[in-house]
Amino acid sequence: xxxxxxxxxxxxxxxxxxxxxxxxxxxxxxxxxxxxxxxxxxxxxxxxxxxxxxxxxxxxxxxxxxxxxxxxxxxxxxxxxxxxxxxxxxxxxxxxxxxxxxxxxxxxxxxxxxxxxxxxxxxxxxxxxxxxxxxxxxxxxxxxxxxxxxxxxxxxxxxxxxxxxxxxxxxxxxxxxxxxxxxxxxxxxxxxxxxxxxxxxxxxxxxxxxxxxxxxxxxxxxxxxxxxxxxxxxxxxxxxxxxxxxxxxxxxxxxxxxxxxxxxxxxx
Length: 268
Hints:
Helix content is 26%, strand content 31%. It is an alpha+beta fold. The chain folds into two domains: 12-75, Orthogonal Bundle (Arc Repressor Mutant, subunit A), CATH 1.10.10; 84-247, Chorismate lyase (3-Layer(aba) Sandwich). It has a six-stranded antiparallel β-sheet, sandwiched between helices. It has a two-stranded antiparallel sheet with strand order 1-2. Strand 5 (132-142) and strand 6 form a beta hairpin.
């Protein structure tokens, strides 16, 4: 009996492409390194040369490999232009970042619900674990292409617009930070953790983002605070490769200001 009537069955080429991509993902090779010959790759994968060439053609189209006639197959430049470039020293919504770069931000599969915050967020919000809070999950697209899966939880005491108004704001590309600022909340700073993650086709975020194979991404865990220091929002954003470029400006700690006077010889 066919158990997959509405879904295209995976071909050997699909499996070969995924296996090769997973093999390259951990960084065993650097851009420009030569891969084994096709007959060796086909033998390692247990597929025909024709199936292997289909998989290699797909990886070449995505830039993950480069094939040179008469020379062989080489690791490509997997780095790609990033959709969003963010300086972590400045708190700014992704919608604002997108506008500055001339990009169109949109969101789909917006889900708004109220759930218990649980023990992890109880300490963040200083509330009992069974406190109900608004949670928003959605896929963020940049110029129509999936870019990230975002999950936000808002402190239960924060007054927000009705769910229908929130949904309209998200669907036109506004971020939750835009909504909170628009409500007049005195937001002053956020604390962000950056974690490397693997996004696979079988985990929840991977399914939502429709990834075809396991790939490396970035997860940003951010807590937003108001002037009193109270945390009012906790977010977990999972970005696909090339989804965001993070820039950090670091300054050397010194005990005193730099000397700006004369050097003792009358020079300034």
